[in-house]
Structure formats: structure tokens, C-alpha cells
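Our collaborator T.R. sent over the components below with a one-line note: 'Predict the complex.' Nothing else. No constraints on interfaces, no templates requested, no preferences about which chain binds where. So this is a plain run: every listed entity goes in together, and whatever single assembly comes back becomes the starting point for the next discussion.
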Amino acid sequence: MADISISSVSVEQEFKSRSLGQETLRRLLKNKGAIIGMLFLLILIIAAVLSGFIYDYDTDVISQNIGERLQWPSRAHIFGTDELGRDIFIRILYGARYSLTIGSGSVLIGLIIGVIFGSVAGFYGGMVDQVIMRTNDILYAVPNIMIAVVIVSLLGTSTFNLLLALCVSASSSFVRIARASVMTIRGQEYIESAYAMGLPTWKIILKHVIPNSLSPIIVQVTLLIGTTIISASSLSFLGIGVPSPAPEWGAMLSAGRSQIRNASYICVIPGLAIMFTVLALNLLGDGLRDALDPKLKK
Amino acid sequence: MFRYILKRLLLMIPVILVTSLVIYFAMSLTGGDPAIYLAPENASDAQIQQIRVDLGLTESFPIRYLKYMAGMFRGNMGTSYVTKRDVFNTFMTRLPNTLQLAGASVLIATLIAIPLGIYTAIHQNTWKDTAGMIFALFGVSMPNFWLGLMLIILFSLKLGWLPSGGKTGLLSLVLPSMTVGLGLAALITRTTRSSMLDVIREDYIRTARAKGCSEKRVIRKHAMGNALIPIITVIGMQLSNVLTGSVLAETVFSWPGIGRLIFESISKRDTPMVTGSIILCSVLMVAINLLVDVIYAFFDPRIKAQFMRKV
Amino acid sequence: MADEKMDYMLEVKDLKVQYNTDAGIVYAVNGLDLCITSKKTLGLVGETGAGKTTTALSILNLVPNPPGKITSGEIFLAGKSVLGMSINELEKMRGNEVAMIFQDPMTALNPVMTVGDQIAESIMLHNKVSETESMSRAKEMLRLVGIDEGRIHDYPHQFSGGMRQRVVIAIALACHPKFLIADEPTTALDVTIQAQVLELIKQLIAKSDMSVLLITHDLGVVAEICDEVAVMYSGRIVEKGTTDDVFNHILHVYTEGLFNSLPNLRERGEELQPIKGMMPNPMEKIVGCSFAPRCPYAAKRCLSEIPALRKMSDTHFVACHAYDDKTFTLKGNING
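Returned assembly:
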């Protein structure tokens, strides 16, 4: 039977046409959780930056003051003092600098590395693809703490090595995302027409491939910074992250363990700092995911 | 199906070989000289050199590696610098402790998370959903070693109900497994919820309702069967994180597992122990991955079909 | 419109359904009247977006809520009010007295259950039988729809689209329903498969006493299978009658336009005649006749008053103010 159906004129809804960015922003701002997250992060970043100007590292952050050790939170010391008499509030603020820079730094570097490798793998396929992906599979499967343990045991404990280890881990998730995006787009017709028009390969990647894979990458970056901050503090807790006397939050918790019976606040406060920072990042990341995803969950 | 498993087992071998080669090579660079550690005090240079020859340290790298791997199959992976005890044995003695911890954690996590995830999905957008999601969000944002410290403060120090460290019996398993389990539960809750929400919207759910299935049956038989598939995937992916979580929990609670073993060996630069443990750990992880894949196939007939065809 | 003397399987009166979405309220069904006589097949025709699927879902009270809501109207199945039924009564009715098949066979079946289990489930839900008994009945159903019995333990992904739709039909007919709702059952299939499945449906209808609501946008299907036709536009019925009435004695301008827009396969070289304008935005509440903006006969009354379905003969109804004038006829009337 021949198809003699009704020729329907398409029914277009007349929505105001907005750019993708504006629409995303509008949806994001509707999300209360995302706004809370953004505000918290903003305050944290400002505090971290300012603390560098207000407090002096040597005198305020790491100098010991045995006379004032182990004081519970009071008006003089909002968060109390630790086992070496250092003011915990100041150390927390300073510690934000470590967490934020290590977290975002390793993820962003990992992003660049990962996108490069992933795009190459997706674009060229074949042997190149196989080699990159098999290696990446191993890096992806091994938890970042393990990778860090191996790297640190080879190279020693330092902030730089910590960063290195976390970069390696972070890049592995981006390799996958980038490769998937490239492969999806590679097959699509507008790429063929771009080729037909004579655009060079690198330009195609820059102008067409990357903008389309932006959404999952943005979400992944935000959420990954959170997990990386937790990993960094876990490693410092174990003693193979940022070396003391740096006021890294995880290291502070490790030092506080010995005082858990009589000065339990030392074990509580830095952990709260970590938790709220990661919470803010998760709220923002979830908000971004909902805002960027056209099929909103209703 | 069996042939598939066999094939996978065979594939495990090159993976293990490559990993162990990489690790062995890496560790040999950091080394330290075992002969010096193992020699008695006041040994002469000649005696130390003799020990080196005995240990096979003077041979070339490939030969040393092959001998080492051969040794692994016989249960001989060297002697710890620190404890002077057999590496393989030490690892194997402590392995069950970590497996208990990991197992209990996964159990706690799934028992909490899957019902909670389903509940929040069904009551989407009500206060019950919001409450569940907030719990999950906090759980995913907190470092699990900190949770462990908090649990110690509350349950050991303030309330005195549970021990704060060491393996002293069943009760001592509670806090460490909750430490790892609650974080995992938070993650699985979120996954379960989103998986359920996706499945509920599918056409076959509408078909089931049109057939006259009660809502309860729709959820239980039709939705769950399909929603479980991605959930199991996520749990499988998290297993290596459970292992790392165990490292942290073992540290906080002084639990005698392999996590802490690896950790302390690294701090004490006990090369043979580190090498041996990491290699054995990677074998373990590969085996667990295989197990998860097989379980997965039982839940998804489409994957089962692929497995059958692959052979 | 419903004649008290007739025996109606389905009666819908002034049904209104809306969806409350993020972007606003979508008025999907706006005062729909419909009735289907027992043992007859009614074709519900309309373009995409006219509200046909929503109407079908409403009959079983399956409109997803949220975001959908039946805001007013009545639905009677064999005399019983659907909207007044309890959950239990609804569940007993669904799949049993009233069955529904949907458009996309690729996603209509549960991927992790065998087709046999899915058919048997339908049987066991509404009959007190053993598992073995239900399985053997399921095998019968497979035979009925032309699938080899031996495939009873296969999974949906092992079947092609056309065969999956046959399974869907088997599930729907497993409890011998008195009323079948088929929502565009062949639209998603390849053309040659469409013909096969339609032939199957035609045979099954002929063999049984079922009343059928067949939703489609394909007038050819209507001509083949249906006894009666109802034309739907923007959430309302604009014309209803027997197939002969509607095909050969068109009353509504929209129906005329539909027939005119069909490409004539015999007279090639003729221009296509689309209907001018577009269907109204379902997010806007419509005042007056929804077709008025596109209608060449529109008068002032059409912009303010919604036309009710007017009886033009025992079987033929049209919703148009133009017929206030008893001598009015469509100028481009297709006859014969």
C-alpha cells in the first residue's frame, strides 16, 4: 500500500530564540542548590585570596605557640588552636588555597591532556586509538589514590608530585569524553561538508568538535574538582600528600587524630571545610548538568 | 558461557604480566639494596656481595623478573625488609580482613541505597525525595576518613558502644564498614534514583500499565529489573574505590588489612612487600572485574547474548 | 450526539485534557465528543499534535499525571464511567476488557523479559490459571499473530520491528478484549511490513467481536479497515461519520483540505495542494473555532463561538457554523 498520508505542515512553536548560553544560564539560576554552591565557592575563593594578604605565612600559619595549644573554640580563636598552638581558623583559610589550587589545577591540566589524547584517539582511530584507549583504561580503572601512592613512592612526597599524580588520574576521564564526542561528531554530516569545503583538520576540531562536547566536559570538570579535593586531602591524611607544616585540611585531620580524645574539634573542623567545599562543587555540578541537559527531569 | 569465562581468564594473564612488569621495573628503580638489609651486622663486603649473588640480584633484569614471576606462582615473592617475614604469606593473611571489610561495606551500602533510591524516585519532587537527596549529597561530599573520625567520636568516645580500633570481633567491623559503606550508599542512592527515573519513563512501562499491572508490580517487576542493570555497573566500577576506601578506613581504625599493609610498606620503604602487594592487588582487581562482568551478564539478556556470540 | 437507543462501546463527552509543563500549559484535548458503536471500527484521523494519543490514553485513564490532567468531561466504556473508577477497577479493566497497542514497537516491550513471559503476564493478571496454562495460551497467541511458537523464550531484541509489533498485538489480544485501542500501530514500521501487520490486524478484527479505535494519520488505512471515521483538529472532532460519508460526502473544510493534500499517484504532474496556514499553538487557549484562521468560509461568529457537532444525517456530523445556512455546500466538493 502506497503511503498516502496527510501532508502535515510542521507545527513550530514560537519560542523566543535564545542562545544556548543564555538559556543554560537561565535554567541554572533557577536552581537554588546551584546558587548556594556558587555563592559558597565565591566566598571561599575570596577568603582564600585575601588570607594571603591579611595573614603572613610564617608568623600566623605555621609558627608554633605552645603556650596556647589545644584551646577549644573561643572568641580569641574562632576555631580553637591545634596541638602546636596555631590558630585553626587562619590555617583553615590558608588551607583553602591548597585545596582549591590543587583541585582545580590538576583537573584543568588533566582536562587539556585528556582532551588532546581523546580527540586524537577518536579522530584517527585504528592503532592510535587502541593504544591510547588501552592505556587509558588502566589509568581509569585504577583509583586515583592508588596512582598517587605509586607515583609518590617512586618520586617522593611533595606537593608537585601530588599534583602530578592527580593530573594523571583526572585526564583519564576526559580522554573518554573527548573521544566519544569526537567519534559521534566525526560521523555527522556537517563535518563531511566542512571537509568538502576544505577546512583543515585542526580547524574542524576547534570549531566544530570542541563546542559540541563542551556540555559533558563542563559538568565533569566541576564534579571532578570535588573528588580531587577529597583525594588530595585523603593522601595528605595518609602522609603522602602535601608535606607538613602546610595547613592542608587533610593533613590537619591527620595531626589531630592524636588529640581526638581531649580536643576532638581538631578532627571535626577541617573535615567540615572539606565537606562544604565539595558540597558546593557538587551542587554547582548537578545544577550545570540539569541546565545543560535538554531533557530536564520533571 | 563457560568458554567466555575461560577466554577472559586467559586474557587476564597478559594484563597481569604487563602490570607486574611495570611495577617490578618501577620498584627496582627505587630499590634500596636488599642485601644490606638482610645481611647480619658487621658483615664484610664480600659477604654482602655473596648475599647479592644468592638472591640473584646480580643477574640481568629480565631474568630477575622472570624468576620473580615464577616465584609468585609458587607463593614465593620475597621477604619483607621490615618484618623479615614472607611477603606472600603476609599478604594472604591480611587479605581476608580487607575482603571482610569491603564485603560488609558493599552490603551496608546496597541495603541502604537501593530501597532509598527507589523510594525517592517514586516520590519524586516531594519532601521525601528532597530529604533523601540531601542525605545522598552530603554523603558524596564528605571524605570517608573524616566520617570515620566522626563515628569514632560519637560511637566510641561519647557513647562507648563500639570499639575504636583493631579487629576485635564482629562489633569492631561495624564502624569501619560504615565508614566506607555510607559514602558508597550515598553514591548508589543517587544512581538508583536516576536509573529508576529513566526507566519509569520508558514505553514498556506504559505497556505494563496498559496491561493492568498494579503500580507495585510495575515498579517491582518491570522497572527494577531494568533499573538494576546500570546500578550494578556502577557498583562494579566502585569496587576499586571500595578498596581504596578500605585503605583509609584501615588507617583510621587500625584494621589489619592489605590497604594498611601497602601503605605502611611504602612509608617504611619495604620494597619487596610493596612490589608483592601491589602486584597481588592488581591480580585481585582484575579477577573482581571479571566476576562483576559475569554477574552483569545474568541481569541483562542482551549482554548475555553478546557473551554467547563472542565465543 | 449519542443516541440512547444505540449500543455504544465507547462514549466520550466534552473531554478536556491539558499538560502542565515548565514552559506553560499545553491544551491537548479541547472538548472532544466521540462514540463508537459496539463491534464497529472507528478511525480517528488527524495530524501530529492534534491530541489523538492523549485521547486514547484518557480512555484508560493512563494520561501521565503529572504533568497531564483530565480537567473535565466524561468517558464511558460499555456504560461504565472510566473517570469514576477506582484504581483496582481500572487495573482489572486494562488489558482485559480494553487493550491498547502503541506506536513504537521497538520500545514497547520490556527488554529483560521473554516475549512468552510478557504475554503470559497479561493472561495471569486477569485469569486464575497456572503458569503452564498461561504459557500454552501464550504460544497460541504467538501462532495467532504469525510467529513461530518456538520463539516463546526469546527476548525482544531478537525480533525485528514488525515482529515486535505482532508480539505487542499478541499481548493486547491475550485476554480477548472487547475493545481495542490501536495508536498508529504501523506508523513506525517499514512500508512493506506495514502492509503485513495491517492485514493481520484486519483479520483479527474480522475474526472477533471487538470494537476498535484505530488512530492514524493515514487515510488509506482508514479506507481499508474502518467502518466509521472521526476527523480531529486541534483537540476537537470536526467531522464524524461512516467511511462512505466522510470520504465521499465531505462536509468540513479541513477534511476537504486533507484529501486535497494527498498526492495523486495516478495524475502525476499535478501540483500538491497544502492547506494554508498552520495548526494553532496548543499552548494558547483558543476562542471560537480553532480552524477559523485558515478557513476560507470563516465568518464573525466563527471567531467567538466554538461550533458544536451538528447532525447532518443519522450517521454524519460536522462542527461548522457555515451549516447554519441550510443551503451551504463546500465549493470544491469531492464526490465519488
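Summary for T.R.: The first helix of chain C runs from residue 52 to 59.
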